[in-house]
Fold:
Amino acid sequence: MEVSKIEVITSMNKLSGLKRALSKLGVTGMTVIQAIGCGVQKGTYEYVTEQNEEMELLPKQYIMVVVENEIVDKVVDVIKKELYTGHIGDGKIFISPISGIVRVRTGEEGMEALK
Structure:
């Protein structure tokens, strides 16, 4: 069975709803890291009329989940729905194939390492 890594960078206030929605889909694990960063707008807030000349790094969260390829589209749809506000800072989603998984404690590999 093939799996993919879904990485999300978004603002700090959407985690609880996203976690709840992904749990309902059957996603069993996630990693969340507090980060600072900016995107295309260089950290300009939506209500500011001029774009920053220098990047302004804003508080963000990085969320990573690994799921079977069969549910990637469903997971991405749920993430988009949960994070959408229509405003700057809703985030980005990155999807990558995973070539291998190893559980350090037991040495299990592949899907067995995820269960």
